[in-house]
Amino acid sequence: MAEPFAVKDCALIALSSGERAQNLRELRDRMLTVPQGSIYYHFWGGMLRPHFDNPEYPNDFAFWAWHGLRDISLAERLALINPCHFNTIDDLRREVVEVIEERLEESEIVPWAKNDRQFFFIQSQIVVFDTRIRLEDLKTFTDSISLMTASSIFYHFIDARRRTNSKKDDFSEWLSGLGDNCAELVASFAALDPYFITLTELRQELQLIINQHTGR
Amino acid sequence: MPENMLARYAQVVGENVIDQLRQLARPLAGAKVVHVNSTKEGGGVAEILHTLLPLKQELGLDTSWEVITGDEKFYQCTKSFHNALQGDRIDVADSLLASYEQTNRENAERLRSKLEDADFVFIHDPQPAPLLSLCPNRKGKWVWRCHIDVSHPYRPVWKYLRRFVEPYNASVWSLEEFVQPLPHPQYLIAPSIDPLSEKNMDLDEREVHALYAQYGLNPGLPIILQVSRFDRFKDPVGVIRAYRLIKEFIPLQLVLAGGAAADDPEGEQVLLQVKAAANHDPDIHILLLPADAHRTINALQRLADIVVQKSVKEGFGLTVTEGMWKAKPVIGGNTGGIRLQVVNHHTGFLVSTPEGAALRIRYLLKHQRKLEEMGRKARQFVLENFLLTRHLREYLTLMAAIMHKQKERIELQVDQNGVAKLDENRS
After folding, report:
1. Which of B47, B250, B312, B397 has the greatest number of CB atoms lying within 10 Å of its CB?
2. How far apart, in whole angstroms, are the C-alpha atoms of residue B306 and residue B358?
3. Where are the beta strands (DSSP E) in B168-258?
4. How far apart are CA B132 and CA B380, in angstroms?
């Protein structure tokens, strides 16, 4: 019998990396060297920090391209990058650099921002704690998703892809161990794109998939 | 405060949020935490401490708050620091610096044993910053909490202060833009408001409407309100200019409500400038409120149609958060933490000039439905992001993070006795 699912939760704290950029070339250069955690933060950290639902742009680089550099083309291209489509943070980093370099080649002058509109690279520390909740079987699992905190959903469904060797979310990993009858549910979870929605919406979507699977 | 504060917060933010705080606080139970600042009343720092402390205590942390005291020269000096860190080119006289250092030495004599014994010491702003160097046998982690916008400091003053803050284990800043390079981890934590405090709790409509008579306000005119200290960086004179530009088209009244903080000797001078600019206009109401007039400010914010915070420099701007919590759109200066809160065209408007403020206020007064819609969004935004519980969570996370290693991931495990501990292998 599989081990019970240990529900964990997390809290994120942001740190200054000390790196900043005032023009597009500087952004490209810093992108090449900043820690992976910083790139992760600027794509995913928005989910756990103060933010406005349905923001104009889904990642901080696209936001700055418009609000800092006033370069709408670049903002739109950067906004379309979906981090779920990359196996590693370094793959994601290469894609961002590629988009920036393409734009630099097109531009007659290097786009730049005013002094008070610089891009600041931020990184984060994540503190993970055990809620002491254990889910013994499929039924308790399906009953519990809607009760989990948004940050718990973040930890198990998004952070897990970076943390685990399999690059899968924790839910799918655990459900796979319960046997073949969960294969469909696991496949549905895998098909869910968490990037363009809020954590609350993600939790609702997970519940919807569960409801469809269990016939509720 | 009553013992069941956490239960009361749960009614506002939800039980999950409070459970999370308890889980995060478990490994810190019994830790001695001391906060030090320079005023017990007036200003955002004191307000935050008034509410954070009882909650930390209820979560099992042995938390206390100490206030350093000084003479007029000390406050003149620290006010100059404050202005210089925000960019004013102010050279601080050696005699004032001597008073600053002497005041800290005197306070260190009084506080040393408590501070050296603490597990965590949070020193707020520059006033008590030298205390660390005066406590050589300290055993805990010391954190310098900077509430000021230090993005473009007057360099000689920052150079002088930097040597006091460099040796801290970490520092905390309200916004990334404010951070100055220092040789320790620099955390980013936005401030917050307390939804249950006198300043933010729900009020009876009669109590709110009683202000019309109390302050001679006209119930027939829309109210534009700015609540802030009488401080040049809050640009109260600019707000009066904006009011005059609107008044040419729409009848309205302006309320400038401010208090004086004990550590701000410059307020009186600015107040005189504001009175001169108002020039006895009967529809401009300048209210000089005592530091503890929280309930009155709450009622004023609820009575207002639009809240303004036209600062040209701002640390975070808690009056913006307060106004938004009362479901008012905010016209905010495009600076500092106001940018984090006022989402342009959603929770209010960001402006750079009195003309810009006038334009947006006129627009909202002409579009009542838009005004109400923005107000609703503003309140929801604060509920999700800028309440005390989020602030407390980040403080607890920070303490857990610096108590252990400065790693990207810190995993707390619960042992068989239910005691949380750091999983060294995972961190």
Report:
1. B397
2. 12
3. 170-173, 186-188, 223-227, 253-258
4. 40
**B425 vs B348: which has the higher pLDDT:** B348
Q: What is the torsion angle, in degrees rounded to the nearest 10, for the CA atoms of residue B203, residue B204, residue B210 and residue B214?
A: -30
State the pLDDT at residue B425. Answer: 37
pLDDT for residue B423 is more than 70: no
CB contact under 8 A, B394 and A11: yes
Stated length of chain B? 427
DSSP track, B114-134: HHHH-SEEEEESSTTGGGGGG
Asked whether this complex has an ipTM greater than 0.95, the answer is: no
Q: With an 8 Å Cβ cutoff, is A16 touching chain B?
A: yes
DSSP string spanning B222-239? -EEEEE--S-GGG-HHHH
Mean pLDDT for the stretch of residues B19-37: 93
A134 touches chain B (CB under 8 A): no
pLDDT of residue B260: 62
**How many Cβ atoms from other residues are within 10 Å of residue B25's Cβ?**
23
Q: Any idea where the domains of chain B sit in the sequence? A: 5-192+387-420, 205-385
Measured between CA atoms, how close is A83 to chain B, in angstroms?
Answer: 20
* pLDDT single digits (tens) B211-243: 999 999 999 999 999 999 898 889 999 999 999
What class, spelled out in words, does domain B5-192+387-420 have in CATH? alpha beta
DSSP labels, B376-410:
HHHHHHHHHHSBHHHHHHHHHHHHHHHHS---SEE
Cβ contact, residue pair A9, B20, below 8 Å: yes
The pTM of the full predicted model, rounded to 2 decimals, is: 0.85
Q: What is the pLDDT of residues B240-287, one digit of tens each?
A: 999 999 999 999 999 999 976 555 667 888 999 999 999 999 999 999
Give the DSSP H/E element, type plus range, for residue B411. Answer: strand B409-414
Could A116 and B151 be called an inter-chain contact, meaning their C-beta atoms sit closer than 8 Å?
A: yes
Chain A: closest CA distance from residue B401 (Å) = 7
d(CA B348, CA B352): 14
Give the C-alpha separation, A185 to A175, whole Å: 8
Distant-in-sequence, close-in-space partners of B185: CB < 8 Å, separation ≥ 6:
A15, B169, B170, B171, B402, B406
Cα Rg for chain A, rounded, in angstroms?
19
In the predicted structure, residue B417 carries a pLDDT above the cut 60: no
Q: Report domain B205-385's class.
A: alpha beta
Q: How far is B182 from chain A (nearest CA, A)?
A: 9
The Cα B281–Cα B303 span in angstroms is 20
Residue range A38-52, pLDDT digits in tens: 999 999 887 876 666
Q: What is the arrangement of strands in the sheet containing B223-227, beginning at the earlier edge strand?
A: B284-288, B253-258, B223-227, B306-309, B330-333, B348-351
* Closest A-chain CA to B21: A11
Residue type, A73: S
